[in-house]
Design the sequence.
């Protein structure tokens, strides 16, 4: 199966997470390679969101270990994960709608003015934040006219763009995207898929959680299938059909019955 | 040109200015005394105490909170300042520092209860309002403190600017507005206040220590109530344990009239200054017209409901 470890950037072994009698993660493994888009799919209750929460620091697993760049890591909060270069775009986007795009991009990480004003009075450098925001959004080809407009004036796809841009501006290793196309129409959904590709092409690794199979097959380099709290298979979307993938996800088909080249 | 349109002030932020201008023009036609430097100076003097309290109230409402204890904190602050100076013979400056400290501590208590025990700000400050009122009455024996040293009355003194005499207290109030305006607009901690009020969970996820922001906001508001206490002492020339009884609703009125949203995250301290002035101009104008003060209360009530209704319609969660 997955013999390559040289380019593995983020991995988890034997993660367990229980909520009372419910076992959400039952010895789950995970492996993300450098510069790939890895889709994580699974039925409701497969432990998909618990896995993602553990990877993004939102949940502390009961046992198991995680390695980032080969070094063991323990996240106690999403901030911990962020400090390690892992950024998460939450499904509800976690933006401040009344604030401007530039402010949202730099929220909690404002660029301060050089000199005493910045150091002692934490005076922000609005000009620099604005120009950095413009540069960054242009890099990602997100077409928004003015960075000083409030996020609430944007369409759903544009807001998603802002949230993705924020995470990529600061992620050093990994961007986790939770259902980025769920609330969008066809056109805006495609726009966001394009954006995710550009993020990968800039050298970041992307973890994509999605229910949308056509989107997953269009964009993912590999697909991690989660079932009953475990990883049951990692497949190559080029060599497997959508229906077989769904069959494995729901337990209708055994992963061992797949042809060898379907595994990734 | 078109993409600059969003930078123009919205109707919501222009509304208070228009209301102030309309009210001013109306009273100018009704009384020849209204349009004079001396009268404007008087209006500023009349609003300086509630004006400074309203700055603190704005900060708290920006975080989607509310503070009912502000007036009582101010009353206790003024009793501490005057009693420490008069009864203990403490140096007036030191007495002022003690007053500011007491008010800041009340703010810290409010902030701690809101963040650590996660109680709604309305209930927390309703409780502390009564507690602080009781402490003020017990400590002062419900007696006014008189015979103050001159230093405590400095901000009630005036200087002449042409034909108009202006109190130092109004200058202090305007300086505080300028300071907090800059703080909210141009500093990272200032912007974090908006973020916490606008979407607290998002602010937390971006790494802002939201609880710490909230506690600091309540403490800063408390400090401002302490300054208001000093102004109140200077203006009245006594420490009055019965003061501060209407300042909570008056300051909330001013904040809301100034266009700050009760949902948090939207609003400006300049709007609040205009809100304070609207209330001041109405009171002053109606008094000059000889309208009984009951009607002033009536008008203020109507204005508040209008302002809150505007807020509801423009910022209702989509």
Sequence:
């Amino acid at each position: 199966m997955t013999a390559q470890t040289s380019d593995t950037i983020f991995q988890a072994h034997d993660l367990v997470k229980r909520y009372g009698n419910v076992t959400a993660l039952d010895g789950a493994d995970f492996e993300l390679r450098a510069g790939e888009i890895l889709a994580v799919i699974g039925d409701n209750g497969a432990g998909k969101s618990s896995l993602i929460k553990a990877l993004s620091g939102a949940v502390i697993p009961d046992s198991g270990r995680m390695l980032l760049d080969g070094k063991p890591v323990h996240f106690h909060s999403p901030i911990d994960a962020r400090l390690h270069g892992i950024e998460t775009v939450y499904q509800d986007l976690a933006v401040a709608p009344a604030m401007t795009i530039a402010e949202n991009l730099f929220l909690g990480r404002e660029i301060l003015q050089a000199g005493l004003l910045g150091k002692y009075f934490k005076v922000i450098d609005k000009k620099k934040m604005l120009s950095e925001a413009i540069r960054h959004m242009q890099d990602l080809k997100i077409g928004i006219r003015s960075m000083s407009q409030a996020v609430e004036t944007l369409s759903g796809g544009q807001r998603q763009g802002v949230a993705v841009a924020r995470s990529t501006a600061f992620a050093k290793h990994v961007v986790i995207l939770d259902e980025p196309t769920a609330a969008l129409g066809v056109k805006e959904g495609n726009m966001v898929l394009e954006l995710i590709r550009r993020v990968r092409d800039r050298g970041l690794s992307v973890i994509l959680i999605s229910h949308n199979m056509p989107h997953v097959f269009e964009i993912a380099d590999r697909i991690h299938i989660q079932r009953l709290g475990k990883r049951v298979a990692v497949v190559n979307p080029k060599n497997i059909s959508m229906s077989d993938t769904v069959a494995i996800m729901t337990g209708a088909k055994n992963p061992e019955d797949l042809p060898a080249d379907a595994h990734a | 040109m078109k993409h600059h349109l969003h930078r123009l002030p919205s109707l919501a932020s222009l509304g208070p200015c228009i209301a102030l201008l309309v009210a001013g023009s109306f009273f100018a036609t009704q009384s020849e005394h209204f349009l004079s430097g001396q009268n404007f100076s008087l209006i500023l003097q009349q609003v300086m105490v509630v004006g400074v309290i309203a700055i603190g109230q704005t900060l708290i409402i920006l975080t989607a909170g509310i503070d009912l204890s502000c007036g009582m904190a101010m009353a206790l602050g003024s009793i501490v300042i005057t009693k420490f100076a008069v009864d203990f013979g403490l140096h007036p400056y030191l007495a002022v520092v003690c007053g500011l400290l007491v008010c800041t501590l009340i703010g810290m208590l409010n902030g701690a209860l809101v963040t650590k025990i996660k109680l709604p700000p309305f209930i927390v400050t309703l409780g502390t309002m009564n507690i602080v009122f009781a402490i003020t009455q017990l400590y002062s024996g419900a007696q006014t403190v008189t015979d103050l040293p001159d230093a405590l009355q400095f901000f009630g003194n005036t200087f002449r600017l042409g034909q108009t005499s202006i109190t130092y207290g109004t200058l202090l109030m305007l300086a505080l507005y300028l300071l907090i305006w800059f703080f909210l607009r141009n500093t990272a901690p200032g912007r974090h206040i908006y973020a916490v009020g606008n979407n607290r969970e998002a602010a937390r996820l971006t790494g802002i220590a939201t609880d710490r922001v909230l506690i600091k906001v309540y403490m800063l508001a408390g400090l401002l109530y302490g300054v208001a206490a000093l102004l109140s002492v200077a203006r009245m020339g006594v420490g009055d344990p019965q003061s501060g009884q209407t300042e909570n609703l008056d300051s909330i009125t001013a904040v809301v009239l100034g266009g700050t949203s009760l949902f948090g995250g939207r609003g400006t301290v300049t709007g609040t200054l205009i809100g304070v002035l609207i209330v001041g101009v109405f009171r002053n104008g109606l008094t000059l017209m000889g309208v009984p003060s009951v009607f002033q209360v009536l008008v203020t009530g109507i204005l508040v409901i209008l302002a809150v209704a505007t807020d509801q319609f423009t910022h209702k969660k989509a």
